[in-house]
Each structure stands twice: as structure tokens, then as C-alpha cells.
Amino acid sequence: MNPATHRILTLTPAEIAAEASRLDQADQQGLQVRQSTLLHPDMTIDDAYAVQAAWLKLKQERGRELIGHKIGLTSQAMQTAMNITTPDSGFLTDDMVYSPSEHIEIARFVDLKIEVELAFVLGEDLSGTSLTVNDVLDATAYVIPAVEMIAARTHRIDFETGRSRTVIDTIADNAADAGIITGGRAVGPRVQDLRWVGAMLTKNGVVTETGLAGGVLGHPARAIVWLANRYARQGMALRAGQIVLSGSFTRPTDVAPGDHFTADFGALDCFECVFV
């Protein structure tokens, strides 16, 4: 990380490591723990991203590989609900990737929900603080339909105080990322206007959510501009071969054992998600 980058940290390195370990253990055990900000009331967004980075390091030390990133809170409605004015982001490792053909065990996750979005697979490194949508499209090998699985390793509502978790809690919790399912038809980034890619999410035979990718900051590639710019200010970059989830254009949908979903992206085809 660039030492010239100014960050606002209130947690010590030991506290950051301890919080990352607490969330990592909760994830491995499929349990929820108390909100990070209840334990550290002065915790900042920079602290939360530091916890997230420490958590990623723990996974890498166990042999996991960083394969990409997710971007969340990209719609105006979600930003208003979380009282922020910017998206958030998390990491994807190789053990967080699922295929439409497999039955996914819901017991592995806590408070599981899914969202519909587009995933960008990079063909070139992407870095800079003045990038544009065209820069993202130039660096993208292809775009593919995706479903993001989201979970909450910390309580959404604290059982003692009734307090809702904040965006700081969510960021520390890897921006609620639990996994990714991709399917359908991959397309070049300029084959069609990505703003008008639509999807219908069907749950057990009933259409529950619909949306257009343009709901993500006006263009899904604009979310990747935001992430690449933020990383560049930290001396980091998005790398060729990585997958980047650009943000949901539907509301989160609850998942229970036995649920069968179809994510229908129209011209980009459809795929199934089955949970047991």
C-alpha cells in the first residue's frame, strides 16, 4: 500500500488482526457474532477495510487465492438506506465460486440472500485515478451474468440493543460477500449496451425481482471505475484475469433450504441456482 495514502485508523494493528480473526472464525463456523462497531465504537471505514484486508490475508495463508472483487451499495436507494454516498467493496477468493450445476448447502452460510448482477472478467490490468467507462470496457475480456450470494457474519440487528449494523460493520464483514455463481452467455463488453441488460429472478417458479444493469450508477462499468480509482489511491490495481462483480440491480432475495432459483438475463441466457 502506498505510504503516502492518508487513512483514518482508530484500531491498533493487534485490534485489526483480532477482529479479522473473529469474523473469519464466524464465517468458518457458520455463526453470527456481534457487530464490529459495538466492540469498537470509534471504528472508521478505513479500519473496516483494514480488517477486511487482514481477513483476506488469513485466507491466503491457508492457501486460498484472490480471484476477484465485489462492489456493493451501487444504487441510490441502497446508499440512502445505509446513509452513505459511495459504494463499498469486498474480495472474492477461489473457495467462493460456485457453478449452476451444483447444489449449494445453505447450512454453510448465515442469513443467506442472493442478488442479480453482471460480472466483468478483466483481460488487462486496470489502474488509475482518472479512469472512464471506456477504459473499463477496453480492459474487459468479457462480461457474464452472475448471482452474488451475500451473508451476514455479524448480526443485522443486535439482539441486546436492537441496533442495526452500519456500513462500517458491513465493510469489515467483507461487504457481506459470501460467493458468486456465474452462468448464461458471456459477451464482449461492447457487443451491446450493458445499461440495458435486464434480468428476472424467479424463486420456486415465481418472479420475485426484475431490474436493469443501468441501475448500477447509470452503467455497471462505472462501479468498476470507482473501485479501480479507489485502489489506485492505495497503490493497488485490478489485475488481468480477475472477476469483478459490478453491483446488484435487484433487491436482495432471501434463500432457504430447498429454494430453486432461475436467473434469466434474456439475450444473455439463463441459469439455475439450487440450495439444499
Summary, kept brief:
By secondary structure, this protein is an alpha+beta fold. The protein has helices at 13-29, 36-39, 45-61, 76-82, 133-139, 167-172, 220-233, and strands spanning 66-72, 88-93, 97-98, 103-104, 113-122, 140-150, 177-182, 198-203, 206-212, 243-245, 253-254, 260-264, 270-275.
Structure report:
There is one protein chain. With 276 residues, the chain is of the alpha+beta class. The protein is 26% helix and 26% strand. It contains seven helices and 13 strands. The chain has helices at residues 13-29, 36-39, 45-61, 76-82, 133-139, 167-172, 220-233, and strands at residues 66-72, 88-93, 97-98, 103-104, 113-122, 140-150, 177-182, 198-203, 206-212, 243-245, 253-254, 260-264, 270-275. The strands form two sheets. Strands 1, 2, 3, 5, 6, 7, 10 and 11 form an eight-stranded mixed sheet that branches. The chain has a five-stranded mixed sheet with strand order 4-13-12-8-9, with no helix packed on it. Strand 12 and strand 13 (270-275) form a beta hairpin. Helix 1 crosses helix 3 (45-61) and helix 5 packs across helix 7 (220-233). The longest helix has 17 residues, at 13-29. The radius of gyration is 18 Å and the shape is globular. The termini are far apart. 41% of the residues are buried.
